[in-house]
Amino acid sequence: MRQLRFRISAFTLLESVMSLFVISFIFMMFTISFTNTINIIKGELFILRFERIYRDTQFQSMVRKQSNNLEIVNKKLLYLGKEVEIPNQVEFLNSYKIRFSEDGGNSSLQKIEIYLPYTEKKMNYQLYVGSGKYRKSIS
């Protein structure tokens, strides 16, 4: 009876390098996509945080019966003696200072413009005088 001998062949150097290249390329594409998604989420979360800070500053003005400021200067958000760093995923197009009166209303018709570079969205907050409310639009 004749015995069958199987020959196990190994990858050649060229095949190994090609396999490594394909796997590295797939991994890099996944990483780039994942990083972009994380940056988009960070930008959207900061927008939600900004809206919450706006409402909290307004509420504290009403409760304490004292005027408060909400300032956006040099990549920082200043409010109620606190300082929040603005992430790179969010760009305020100007510096802003919003003053809330003792009854929670603001005294400005400012238009706050925010740009999110990873989604290429521009968000506008048009403030209403006296009420402290705003109208949000996305373009």
From TrEMBL:
Keyword Membrane listed: yes
Keywords on record: Membrane, Transmembrane, Transmembrane helix
InterPro entries xrefs: ComGD
Positions of transmembrane segments: 12-32
NCBIfam families: ComGD (NF040982)
Name under which the protein is recorded: Competence protein
Species of the source: Floricoccus tropicus
